[in-house]
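Quick note —
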Amino acid sequence: MQKTCYIQKKGIRRMKYTDVLLKGGRNMDTNTKLILSTVLASFFTFQLLFHFISYWFSAKVSPGFNSLSSEKKIEWNSRVVSTCHSLVVGVFGLYIFFFDEALKADPLWGDSSVVKVNISIASGYLVSDLLILILYWKVIGDKYFIIHHCTALFAYSIVLKEGVLGYIGNFRLLAELSSPFVNQRWFFEALKYPKFSKANVINGILMTVVFFIVRIVSMPPFYSFIYSVYGTEAYIRLGFFIQCSWISTCVVLDVMNVMWMIKITKGCIKVISLIRQEKAKKSLQNGKLD
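Predicted structure written out below.
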């Protein structure tokens, strides 16, 4: 009798353990399907946007688009795609940053399907843009973009595969909020807008301020956070590979952010000095007229 009860209990324990494994497997399969389907949908959507939708939409919205050279149109479409991607993942990222309590409670190990969707969208875009860069290398090829995209893809693949650092991945995506202003500056230049036009000056100011906030000002608190969790039980559980990958990819991306910020600052200083020169010329002309 006792032996029968023992066998039954042991059987129940085995059944429970099997159920846990099956549930875990089903969840893993569901997550994998969600990630892969989102990455693929993102990739094909951005390809469609680049090759077809942007041509049609840009011609409707901007009459100057049709007068651009074929090379300029390629870069134009690439930047339209970049702007669309930035707006989607940036706004989505802000929502997650402010309202996803589970991630805020556990930044290293917090798991969120919403974050996975956002990072999957970004990953699909990065693969799509890499393909476009390679196909049109002579027109829009840039080695820094290749480094940036490959580094970001490597980092995001860890987040999606291992289910860790979702909060960090989403935080890094907030840097994309500066891209629409950078792209708009190029659009104005391609359409030959005057450098001192009101729209150009306002966009230039917004571009510099937003880029500085989301890519430079965010650095000290980000690296302070790394320092605060370094050596904790949650950090140790990540393992050496993920720890090194996390920090090294962020350093590479931030070095490029600093380089781009310096370039933007130089351009901003140049425009301000030109505006002052124009004002000085006007005042001299007014003085002569008087």
